[in-house]
Amino acid sequence: MGGASHAYKEMAFLKRLKKEYMELKKSPPPGVVLDDSVLENNITNWIIHISGAEGTLYSGEQFKLNIKFNDKYPFDSPQVTFIKPYLPVHPHVYSNGHICLSILDRDWSPALNVSSICLSILSMLSSCTQKVKPDDDSMYMRFAPSNPKKTTWVFHDDSV
Predict the structure, then answer these.
(1) At 6, is the pLDDT very low, low, confident or very high (cuts 50, 70, 90)?
(2) 159 pLDDT exceeds 50?
(3) Domain UBC core: where (predicted)?
(4) Which residues have C-beta within 8 Å of that of residue 46, sequence separation ≥ 6?
(5) Is 53 exposed, middle or buried (0-12, 13-18, 19+ CB in 10 A)?
(6) How many other C-beta atoms lie within 10 A of the C-beta of residue 121?
(7) Which of 23, 53, 61, 81 is the most exposed place for a label (fewest CB within 10 A)?
(8) pLDDT tens digits, 100-147
(9) Which of 71, 51, 64, 53 is nearest to 93 (CA)?
């Protein structure tokens, strides 16, 4: 019985990814392009190209995201990182591409999807007023796990 349950979960997970893939190809958020050449080999590892929005600090700049899904998606957030050298200098983006963004951690919901992740990242970039690395970038880089989901993030509103 356990094997059948696992197979069903895997089918649901893959069905969800295929649906999101089709939606993102058909109607991506502005400035977002899915690189589907990677998907031919592995539907659980996506590359997304993001263009900085006009009128922002990142206008005209191009970035790349790597989104890795596990079989618990959408109940567990995907692993999302910027890919070097296509990562922005931003207070919430570390030099290894890790992103400190609450929807990728404690504020994740199965109602969210790849489009909403991309929109949140675009919003994070668009609202930035100064191109600086995170204050603790050098310390984080010394001890950071390879998977950002293994980081215990402290968000600004945690200290309130």
Answers:
(1) low
(2) no
(3) 12-160
(4) 21, 34, 35, 38, 39, 65, 66, 67, 68, 69, 114
(5) middle
(6) 26
(7) 23
(8) 999 999 999 999 999 999 999 999 999 999 999 999 999 999 999 999
(9) 64
Average pLDDT over residues 39-54: 90
Pairing label, strands 45-51, 32-35: antiparallel
**Cα 19 to the center of its chain, rounded Å:** 18
- Which domains occur in the chain, in start order? 29-150 (3.10.110.10)
Report pTM. Answer: 0.89
Cα–Cα distance measured from residue 135 to residue 85, given in angstroms and rounded to the nearest whole number: 20
Active-site residue, from 32, 100, 104, 128: 100
For residue 100, indicate whether it is catalytic. Answer: yes
Helices (H), the chain: 2-26, 36-39, 114-126, 137-143
DSSP 103-141: GGTTT--TT--HHHHHHHHHHHHHT--S----TTHHHHH
